[in-house]
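Practice record 12: protein with zinc ion.
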Amino acid sequence: MKIDVLEMTPTKAELVISDTNPTFVNAIRRTIVADVPKMAINNVEFHLGPIMDESNKAYESISPLFDEIVSHRLSLVPIPTDLEQFNFRSECSCGGEGCPSCTIMYSLNKKGPCTVYSGDLEPVGSEHLKIKDDLIPIVKLAEDQALLVYATAELGRGKDHAKWQATVGAGYRYAADIEIENGKCDAGCSCAEICPKDVLVKDGRKLKAEHPEKCNLCNSCVEMCEVEAIKVTGNPSKLNFRFETDGSMAAKDVLLKGLSILEERFEQLREQLSALE
Ligand SMILES: [Zn+2]
């Protein structure tokens, strides 16, 4: 198996995996979507009753949205996740009560009129847990309205709730094998121009597939070519695999964690099978 990295940024990865098959790449896709854990807000406590400001002005602790909707929106905010630092609450040495090794606590204190953003969540304790994506709107407060909440984040998995899914838009497609018979084709037609991904390039009277990795198998060039000089086929042993993250974890960390989960599972299977002998 060979892996070429086309793009690897903190929130996006695109790879070409060769000498493989769709089943294998799909196993990676499913694992990074459903099994790689991340932190998300799982509990929100709302202050009830009047909220006072410094000059003793009283605000009503209310917002135009139901508390349930505000909680739901808060739960989807990407929480910076370092998997080395946190345990699952149920497996933590605190016995599930909540401690700095399994829980992050945030406070939010805003008075209207204003828009409450994800960046208004203040981590209690370490500043590096501050929300990076700080302009996600949560709710708009009107005059005399205020919101005072304490929210706790904990580790979970995407298969339990989408708020614990670090990976978004994970998918793969066959890489393209592009054959051009330059004897037939004189690059006189507009097959290069019709390509929506700029895969084909004209070099004098020759046509070249300059960026075959960008091809999405749309076959526009094949349909355009009057002399049937272009053949585009999907290769099931070479796959273009891409995914993004919600920003809570780096794409590379998500992939590495996914692979180690898969490895662990196969190891368990191997141990159980050898015990049968
Ligand atoms: Zn704990």
